[in-house]
């Protein structure tokens, strides 16, 4: 029986291994992690991450050929294929701080693999890593090999949170990069055989190591660039009276461009986009490509500009102050159908409003009160370190309360800010909400989910990103 071990039981490792176990009943799959709490959650009925469809997949396989364990060394030593899905946070100090990826956890995983291995291994990079990481890992393993052979493969994930299980079941492509040597090609084939249980062969792409590593960074950079492009247009639409939804629709009809990732919003979030672009910037700078680095930096700048612009719009619309005013925050996750808050635009928007002394009442159907408080008090990039290395849970931000539903969050509020596109926000009883709010009542829609005309008929003053401005707002420009 082929044995697979995955180091790291997070958003990538857990779902990916569950789907491999489901489609490959003849393969034993073990997911290991140093976090006892996280492994206990995977072994319980309350999984540590929310992802539609994940629960059902795990239930079918757990205890059959899918296992979760903290006995890392045992399972690593027994495995034929080891996936490494550990954090690669952005460095917060030292060389490359604020841009370069911190490979501390990757290096310690590689050293541990070398220490405990008694047979030949295929080691698969599953985390997003900088180009040439494979070479570094290869050197560590080779210099500590004790006669054991290692083959390093790059197999980047292309999952979107909220649709990860669907993405794993029917991927656009599976990318496997390896050494173009006889042993390297054998290792590529071994991993290809795993995916071939359910992925059509023409969707399994093989490349050299460096192409696979760079393709992941490039894909995320291109997607983030599209969002920043449409968000830059949204500012121009507001200034001119154009409607960004109509512009996006017209642009997306061009088959060379296509309609995806053209929704204007308060900004992109998630664990990958910003981190991967910063990583790309750092790699470009290290290779003397200053102009290329500056080009990609601009994608991040526009994203930050969009979040600042939104906060400025809220404050300027409400008589230039939100001090002491209650603002209902609708959604805190970075996108719908996930409880993930990493780099969510809601953090920066909430911090901006708190900076002007607003009182916030936050509601999100999948994010815990503790997580929201942690995010609002944590330093940038701290979230990407293992939980035991993050700051202890804070006492909480006094101006923030967590609501159990949208109606509680909006009661007696001066304004609502919609920051996540949860479907339930489209169907709320806005008449009831309006009746229980302070007047004038504002809705700032950062995701373009509400029916603007319907809300204006009820009596709301509505700001929707990239849409023609409410007459109220025209005389109160957002200072960006």
Automatic annotation (TrEMBL):
<dbReference type="Pfam" id="PF03720">
    <property type="entry name" value="UDPG_MGDP_dh_C"/>
</dbReference>
<dbReference type="Pfam" id="PF03721">
    <property type="entry name" value="UDPG_MGDP_dh_N"/>
</dbReference>
<dbReference type="InterPro" id="IPR014027">
    <property type="entry name" value="UDP-Glc/GDP-Man_DH_C"/>
</dbReference>
<keyword id="KW-0560">Oxidoreductase</keyword>
<feature type="binding site">
    <location>
        <begin position="272"/>
        <end position="275"/>
    </location>
    <ligand>
        <name>NAD(+)</name>
    </ligand>
</feature>
<dbReference type="InterPro" id="IPR028356">
    <property type="entry name" value="UDPglc_DH_euk"/>
</dbReference>
<feature type="binding site">
    <location>
        <position position="38"/>
    </location>
    <ligand>
        <name>NAD(+)</name>
    </ligand>
</feature>
<protein>
    <recommendedName>
        <fullName>UDP-glucose 6-dehydrogenase</fullName>
        <ecNumber>1.1.1.22</ecNumber>
    </recommendedName>
</protein>
<comment type="similarity">
    <text>Belongs to the UDP-glucose/GDP-mannose dehydrogenase family.</text>
</comment>
<keyword id="KW-0520">NAD</keyword>
<dbReference type="InterPro" id="IPR036291">
    <property type="entry name" value="NAD(P)-bd_dom_sf"/>
</dbReference>
<feature type="binding site">
    <location>
        <position position="342"/>
    </location>
    <ligand>
        <name>NAD(+)</name>
    </ligand>
</feature>
<feature type="binding site">
    <location>
        <begin position="8"/>
        <end position="13"/>
    </location>
    <ligand>
        <name>NAD(+)</name>
    </ligand>
</feature>
<feature type="binding site">
    <location>
        <position position="161"/>
    </location>
    <ligand>
        <name>NAD(+)</name>
    </ligand>
</feature>
<dbReference type="Pfam" id="PF00984">
    <property type="entry name" value="UDPG_MGDP_dh"/>
</dbReference>
<dbReference type="GO" id="GO:0006024">
    <property type="term" value="P:glycosaminoglycan biosynthetic process"/>
</dbReference>
<feature type="active site" description="Nucleophile">
    <location>
        <position position="272"/>
    </location>
</feature>
<feature type="domain" description="UDP-glucose/GDP-mannose dehydrogenase C-terminal">
    <location>
        <begin position="328"/>
        <end position="452"/>
    </location>
</feature>
<dbReference type="InterPro" id="IPR014026">
    <property type="entry name" value="UDP-Glc/GDP-Man_DH_dimer"/>
</dbReference>
<dbReference type="GO" id="GO:0005634">
    <property type="term" value="C:nucleus"/>
</dbReference>
<feature type="binding site">
    <location>
        <position position="33"/>
    </location>
    <ligand>
        <name>NAD(+)</name>
    </ligand>
</feature>
<comment type="pathway">
    <text>Nucleotide-sugar biosynthesis; UDP-alpha-D-glucuronate biosynthesis; UDP-alpha-D-glucuronate from UDP-alpha-D-glucose: step 1/1.</text>
</comment>
<dbReference type="InterPro" id="IPR001732">
    <property type="entry name" value="UDP-Glc/GDP-Man_DH_N"/>
</dbReference>
<dbReference type="InterPro" id="IPR017476">
    <property type="entry name" value="UDP-Glc/GDP-Man"/>
</dbReference>
<dbReference type="GO" id="GO:0051287">
    <property type="term" value="F:NAD binding"/>
</dbReference>
<dbReference type="GO" id="GO:0003979">
    <property type="term" value="F:UDP-glucose 6-dehydrogenase activity"/>
</dbReference>
<dbReference type="InterPro" id="IPR008927">
    <property type="entry name" value="6-PGluconate_DH-like_C_sf"/>
</dbReference>
<dbReference type="GO" id="GO:0006065">
    <property type="term" value="P:UDP-glucuronate biosynthetic process"/>
</dbReference>
<dbReference type="InterPro" id="IPR036220">
    <property type="entry name" value="UDP-Glc/GDP-Man_DH_C_sf"/>
</dbReference>
<feature type="binding site">
    <location>
        <begin position="127"/>
        <end position="128"/>
    </location>
    <ligand>
        <name>NAD(+)</name>
    </ligand>
</feature>
<feature type="binding site">
    <location>
        <begin position="86"/>
        <end position="90"/>
    </location>
    <ligand>
        <name>NAD(+)</name>
    </ligand>
</feature>
